[in-house]
């Protein structure tokens, strides 16, 4: 992953949040407060507007800046959670970058194994802040299987696009698997058993984020 790919990824996320805003809000209206689409849209629109003027010179800096913007622009649970995910991801990626592996666009570039490590740091950031475990019906239920699939692919020698495609498939599967779960974290947990039978909004936005990475890396 180089700086251009990191920038293209967050732009693709912004486009996906625009396209799927109503769907995310609809999901959040069933088990939350009907603002997840607006939250994600507002956050990534701010990122998409700010990044072209930003002088972030490494992929890690782009993603860390994305996280900081999400924290400052998005309220609710998802702003700080995604904010800390992107900040942790970016910081880890900067620490792992491989000097001299620059692509045609310049800057430094991280390989699939470094990206896997950075994604693990991102997930750890969400866990640290939200204290949710797999099965609690949150974004973790998409993020954790996505990371596992990404890492398994990367270790087997897949390139970034292949690893990201495997991660996106796993995230979508994890997202669908939240439907029968009873929420144990976040607003949806207030509903108790009535949260069963609805797909989690945050797991859905996480799947969009991984699909955006797969699409960007394949382009
Ligand atoms: P809010 O619930 O504050 O309105 P959003 O609607 O934007 O915030 O985001 C809700 C999503 O945040 C949930 O669908 C869930 O995936 C995620 N979420 C909530 N609490 C947690 C937590 N403690 N850990 C991980 N994810 C969480
Ligand atoms: Mg909400
Ligand atoms: Mg809210």
Automatic annotation (TrEMBL):
A Gene Ontology cellular-component term: cytosol
GO biological process: glycerol catabolic process
UniProt cross-references to InterPro entries, sorted A to Z: DhaK_L_YcgS, DhaL_dom, DhaL_dom_sf, Dihydroxyacetone_Kinase
Keyword Nucleotide-binding appears in the UniProt entry: no
UniProt keyword annotations, A-Z: Kinase, Transferase
Sample GO molecular function, one term: glycerone kinase activity
Residue ranges constituting the DhaL domain according to the UniProt record: 4-215
Protein name: Putative dihydroxyacetone kinase subunit 2
Annotated source species: Actinacidiphila reveromycinica
